[in-house]
Design brief:
It is built from seven helices and ten strands. By secondary structure, the protein is of the alpha+beta class. The strands form three sheets. Strands 7, 8, 9 and 10 form a four-stranded antiparallel β-sheet that branches. A three-stranded antiparallel β-sheet has the order 1-5-2, covered by helices on one side. Strands 4-3-6 form a three-stranded antiparallel β-sheet. The mean pLDDT is 81.
């Protein structure tokens, strides 16, 4: 595996002035000694050398690196921004160190329960090892996209869309935990390409269109059941409190049968969906 090795290139400004000065002197010598072959020929050869030397000039922009190769052999990476000069026979490949992000395509996968869902992710990444990015994979940008989508598919199949157990991890209910898992999985896949994943999270999550309506009804039914459970728990507590207060303050003495009737009426009032219309009894409660 090829690791990045930083090298220092010569200042391009100094080399450009030196080459221009040398070239100007050689041109002047060639013009003034055209009739003298033993002077004109070395001047012409010197101008060819200067022209080759100019090819060694290159620019490194901020947050950019140049990977240097000599006849296929990796020489090193130049990261210092500015005008630089190196061996004219080096090939120079630009690799950006800037932070980049992309949103994956909407993927249709089956979650852990087998329900078809649609999901997409946003991944923020940057190159940290230019040698690995340039030589370990064919195209590191395409590699990032493909491996990120593969990691997202794998993650979606390991978890259910919506968990029935509150202690169970789900794609919809545990967004931060799922995002952390997605980031780790993508990083494991991209480490060999010299890429650092800075952030990854799910940007789109929904049931597939063919089951969306059925799943919506199931979610609504679950919400209704949960709400009913809370209402019943609260109503039972209020009934118990009412009976205790009646007994503590000696407001009325009720036998077990009348207590049962009172409990039934209170539960109907507290748990009903519609407003209750009471019937006022002006006589005795006993038949």
């Amino acid at each position: 595996m090829i690791r990045e090795r930083q090298v220092t290139a010569v200042s391009g400004g100094f080399m450009m002035l030196a080459l221009l000065g040398t070239g100007a002197a050689l041109v002047g010598g060639l013009i003034s000694h055209l009739s003298t072959p033993h002077v004109a020929i070395p001047c012409a050869l010197g101008m060819v050398v200067v022209a080759i030397g100019v090819a060694g000039l290159f620019v490194v922009n901020p947050n950019e690196a140049k990977v240097l190769q000599l006849f296929g052999r990796y020489v090193g990476t130049v990261r210092e921004p500015g005008l630089r000069w190196s061996n004219p026979f080096y090939t120079k490949k630009k690799v950006s160190d800037r932070i980049r992000n992309f949103e994956s395509n909407k993927l249709k996968v089956n979650d852990r329960d087998g329900s078809p869902i649609e999901t997409a992710a946003v991944v923020v990444w940057r190159v940290v090892d230019t040698a690995e990015a340039a030589f370990e994979v064919d195209n590191y940008e395409n590699f990032v996209h493909v491996q990120s989508e593969a990691a997202l598919r794998n993650l979606a199949t390991r978890h259910c869309y919506d968990a029935h157990d509150p202690n169970e991890l789900s794609l919809r209910g545990n967004t931060q935990e799922v995002a952390d898992q997605l980031k780790r999985e993508i990083q494991d896949r991209l480490a060999k390409a010299g890429v650092e994943v800075m952030e990854a999270r799910i940007a789109h999550l929904a049931y597939a269109p063919e089951i969306a309506s059925a799943m919506l009804r199931r979610q609504q039914a679950g919400a209704i059941i949960a709400a009913r459970q809370r209402i019943v728990e609260g109503a039972v507590g209020m009934v118990d409190m009412a009976l205790e207060l009646l007994k503590a303050k000696n407001v009325v003495e009720l036998d077990e049968e009348r207590k049962a009737a009172m409990v039934s009426n209170l539960l109907v009032v507290l748990c009903g969906e519609h407003d209750v219309r009471p019937v006022v009894n002006t006589g005795t409660i006993y038949q």
